Amino acid sequence: MRFRAKIVDLACLNHFSRVINTIAKLAKTCTLCLTDSKLYFILSDKVANGGVSMWCELCQGNFFDEFQMEGVAAEHNEIYLELVPENLSRALKTAQSAKAVKIKLTNKHCPCLRVAVELPSLSSSSRIVTHDIPVGVIPRRLWNDFREPSVPDFDVSIYLPCLKTMKSVVERMKNLSNSIVIEANLSGEMNLKIETDLVSVTTHFKDLGNPPWASEDGCQSSAQGRDLESMAEARIDIKKLQQLLAGQQVNPTKALCNIVSKRIVHFILLHEDVSLQYFIPALA
After folding, report:
1. Rounded to whole angstroms, how far apart are CA atoms 137 and 79?
2. Is the overall model pTM greater than 0.85, yes or no?
3. Which is nearest to 131 in space by CA: 118, 140, 147?
4. Strand (E) positions, the chain?
5. Mapping DSSP to helix (H, G, I), strand (E, B) and coil, where does residue 12 land?
6. 182 forms bridges with which residues in the sheet?
7. Residue 192: helix, strand or coil by DSSP?
8. Which residues share a beta bridge with 237?
9. Are residues 119 and 101 in contact, defined by beta-carbon separation less than 8 angstroms?
10. pLDDT digits (tens, 9 = 90+) for 179-227
11. Could you give the C-alpha distances from 110 to 27, 135, 137, 161, in angstroms and in order?
């Protein structure tokens, strides 16, 4: 089992750092799955996370100049590691003006991801800062716990408004209530609502558009034949939504959400070579 990678391009390094910073804001611990073409950061929907789950997918070729990995076996060419993303985020903070960053899986005293940051130097000798990030190797018998979640059989799928606008609305509402209702229809309308004994506040968004999901996907059935004006809604923990909006540094080119009425809200943020899915369960 081996893994080593290198990033030289500064734009790629900064982009990778932003993705890791986003994950660090969304998960205290997560699973990193390495394959020969992709990296996946996974948070599975354990009760300890409040039922929240995350699936973030990166194409390694768009970030790394060198990338070599050998999985646990030839027929299972994957590596699953448990790590604290904040530790990786901190290590990459020292690399903002680096000449190169090397990441390697080592096992001196315990399994570690070694992040070696080569910094610019005035002399001929290079300055290298090394961070050893402890990781846990996840045995193969548990890999099935970390498969990509299927797109839920949603009632409504809708593009999100500008995330900065949404973030400022949710931050104001957070001071008034612990939960928020997200409702949307197939006419491109979405409302964010809070209702307490003292106050009722609704923010309306219009003309957002609805994604054209392919019908063979099998995930369209609840939305097919649905009244275009009829709202699907879910009440979710406002802190979890705010965490996503405040934490995301992916700056997506496309952002959408799928609502399964009274069950789950599934957010998808897409940016060229990164896709981030985030699932927030509805409150009872």
Report:
1. 8
2. yes
3. 118
4. 2-7, 30-34, 38-43, 53-59, 66-70, 79-83, 100-107, 111-119, 127-134, 136-137, 156-159, 179-184, 190-195, 200-205, 232-237, 254-260, 264-271, 274-281
5. helix
6. 192, 234
7. strand
8. 179
9. no
10. 999 999 999 999 999 999 999 999 999 999 999 874 444 454 566 677 8
11. 23, 8, 10, 45
